[in-house]
Design brief:
The structure holds two protein chains of two kinds. Chain A is mainly α. Chain A is built from eight helices and no strands. A four-stranded antiparallel sheet of chain B has the order 4-5-7-6, with helices on both faces. In chain B, strands 1-2-3 form a three-stranded antiparallel sheet. The longest helix of chain B has 28 residues. At the A-B interface, helix 2, helix 3, helix 4, helix 5 and helix 8 of A face helix 1, helix 2, helix 5 and helix 9 of B.
């Protein structure tokens, strides 16, 4: 659950929840069956979705090395899994918590920034074909959070930059 | 079109090694017992600011000048055990022996592990690798932040940890000298690791107040 919802449970001794707060809670609970349905669809179609995204990317950019594409596929699968869980929780910050720092370190190490971004775009296209607009709207915040992380170029450590000048 | 990547093969074991040391899953607590544990159930020790300051002050009072050596040796002991635990956890998580991990996997895990344990950030600087030295940058270090005022770099504990950790990783007896220090206003703590006889001039140069650039230039010019 996202922080706003979790905060609702913080102070039961002080007061009852007001109508607006109860409405937020009800909305989340009411959305759970659909969230779980989308989660199941993602789980059951993970391989198909990602394979189609990988194949599309490969068709468009044949010069990507196998090593880079394999690493990006692993990263893409992980991102999708984190997004799926974030969607169930209705908490896009979950993606940031788990991926920030780690993702940029992996991208820097494997030099896959561009391939990761392109594969993510292909995956979003596949998701657009397979899911309804309503289902996509549930996934969108998490996908957007991961896209933001992917679009931030990993920074080279300052020491390396300075050392390179010597 | 030939498919070069089989996603089905990649997920065959239904287990993709993600961010093992992510702080929100790695550190757990049992409030009733006042315990901190990692995700495998191993105990973690929280070092509050007061305790770190107290360790510095106590060592200074008890051992004086030798406190640096004590901290370095404590760090070496810590680093030796840290290396063993780190390797054990990592090979268990990846289901592969450590030697089979790529350098990138190893490095990423070390960076996240360091960060999650609250020791700040760590980066490896390969710029001097061809000269036989490994540079390490550590920033936001609590051991620099809470150290008593000094005219010299103060992170002896970390120098010991790095010396033992990378010594075991490379299978060589290494020395470690700190060149820049956050406690002296630098942006990060810079450590250089290398064989003892090759690194020998560095410690004296740092003691004489030479800069990072001067020390690394001198080390690089050695035959």
């Amino acid at each position: 659950m996202n922080q706003q919802l979790i905060a609702l449970f913080d102070q039961p001794e002080k007061r009852y929840l007001n109508p607006k707060e109860l409405s937020s809670l009800s909305q989340y609970v009411a959305s759970l069956p659909e969230r779980i349905r989308v989660y199941r669809l993602l789980r059951d179609n993970e391989v198909k979705l990602m394979q189609q995204a990988v194949d599309s990317l490969q068709a468009q950019c044949s010069q990507i090395s196998e090593k880079q594409l394999e690493r990006s596929t692993v990263t893409g699968l992980l991102i999708l899994r984190y997004c799926a869980m974030a969607m169930v929780l209705d908490d896009a910050t979950f993606v940031k918590q788990r991926l920030q720092g780690w993702l940029s370190a992996v991208q820097l190490a494997y030099e896959t920034v561009k391939v990761d971004q392109d594969l993510h775009e292909m995956l979003r296209q596949q998701l657009g074909r397979q899911f309804t607009a309503q289902q996509l709207s549930l996934l969108e915040p998490a996908l957007k959070a991961s896209q933001v992380l992917l679009s931030q170029p990993p920074e080279k450590p300052q020491a390396m930059v300075e050392a390179a000048k010597i | 079109m030939t498919t070069i990547i089989s996603v089905a093969d990649l997920v065959a074991e239904n287990r993709l090694p993600g961010n093992y040391f992510a702080s929100d899953v790695y550190v757990r607590g049992t409030l009733e017992f006042g315990l901190l544990e990692n995700r495998r159930g191993n105990r973690l020790l929280a070092l509050p600011e007061t305790l770190i300051k107290g360790i510095y002050a106590g060592l200074e009072q008890e051992t004086g000048q030798a406190s640096k050596l004590v901290l370095l040796n404590c760090g070496r002991w810590w680093g030796k055990n840290f290396y063993a635990r780190f390797c054990d956890e990592l090979s268990d998580f990846y289901k592969r022996p450590l030697a089979d991990l790529t350098m990138a996997e190893f490095l990423q895990a070390l960076q996240q592990c360091w960060h999650t344990h609250g020791w700040g950030g760590i980066n490896l600087d390969p710029a001097y690798q061809s000269k036989g030295f490994l540079g390490i940058q550590i920033f936001s270090s609590p051991y620099a932040q809470y150290a008593p005022p000094s005219q010299q770099p103060v992170c002896y504990l970390e120098a010991g940890i790095l010396q033992a950790f990378f010594g075991q990783l490379t299978g060589r007896e290494l020395s470690c000298v700190q060149l820049t220090c956050e406690a002296l206003g630098a942006d990060y703590n810079y450590f250089v690791l290398g064989l003892e006889h090759r690194l020998k001039p560095a410690a004296a140069m740092v003691a004489a107040g030479k800069s990072y650039t001067e020390v690394m230039a001198a080390l690089s010019q050695q035959s």
